[in-house]
Fold this protein.
Amino acid sequence: MKKESVPQDKGNLSKSNMKELVYATDDNGNYTTALSTGWEPKTIALSNSIEEINERISEAKENVKNGIVSPIAYFMEASKMDLTILSDYVGMWKWRVKRHFKPAVFAGLSDKVLQKYANAFDIKLADLKNFKTD
């Protein structure tokens, strides 16, 4: 994209009076940097992604409230992780982490195991153990 064609659409960045650094080509065809206030398709895609993430967090919270899953599932979503990432953070197999999503299994976990999750979510152990959905 030519430097003078870099999008300057109204978006989240322009609302914050910020700009994004992007690469573009100058008049000689060499790569250079340019500042952009936003690009509408990118803004729409990011907004849709954030909306989907928030829906997944709400659904996980409701599932914890209804006793369908443990707080680990909620904090995984709230931390924008997936099963693979979480299992890497806590150093456990994915099947084992997924098993810890079960409320009955979660209730029997040791503080040592729960502390691994608390560290991964950057929360206190007590916040994980005493999670309230209110």
